[in-house]
């Protein structure tokens, strides 16, 4: 008599990837990454990009406002700084047409540690053009009173 023993194991542990990081691509083309210090004038602005699936892509401005800008600011390591959405051309150029628009219809509550943890339409699902890429301005709180003329409200 032959007996076959079959054993099935089920794992309940899951592996999750860390949240996708962000960066700002400045008008000059310079990149402001997580942990970079603010420039001497206390301000940095640029197109918001997120790294996902092996490459950098952009974030659509749909739903992107002050709360999302502050989440980006915090994620970049600029706690104690303020962030806001900036639609001006001075904040950065649109992404190139070969870049994926990764995030659209962003919905941040303000307690997220990473922009990619905010609600959104889903990775790569969008109805945007690169002319709608989100841009943000970050600044040091101690520089605000000295530089009110630089703020565009």
From TrEMBL:
Protein origin, superkingdom = Eukaryota
Q: Which Pfam families match?
A: SRCR
Please give the organism.
Effrenium voratum
Signal peptide segment = none
Q: Quote the protein name from its UniProt record.
A: SRCR domain-containing protein
Mention any one GO cellular component term assigned to this protein in its UniProt record.
membrane
SRCR domain spans which residues? 22-139
Upper classification of the organism: Eukaryota, Sar, Alveolata, Dinophyceae, Suessiales
Keywords on record = Disulfide bond, Signal
């Amino acid at each position: 008599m032959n007996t076959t023993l079959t054993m099935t194991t089920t794992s309940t542990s899951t592996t999750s990837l860390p949240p996708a990081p962000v960066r700002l691509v400045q008008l000059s083309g310079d990149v402001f990454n997580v942990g970079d210090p603010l420039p001497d004038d206390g301000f940095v602005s640029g197109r918001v990009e997120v790294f996902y699936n092996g490459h950098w892509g952009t974030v659509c401005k749909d739903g992107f406002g002050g709360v999302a800008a502050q989440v980006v600011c915090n994620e970049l390591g600029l706690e104690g700084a303020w962030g806001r959405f900036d639609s001006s051309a001075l904040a950065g150029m649109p992404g190139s047409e070969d870049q994926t628009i990764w995030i659209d219809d962003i919905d941040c509550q303000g307690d997220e540690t990473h922009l990619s943890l905010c609600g959104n339409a889903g990775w790569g699902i969008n109805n945007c053009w690169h002319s709608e890429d989100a841009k943000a301005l970050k600044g040091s709180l101690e520089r605000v009173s000295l530089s009110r003329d630089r703020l565009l409200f």
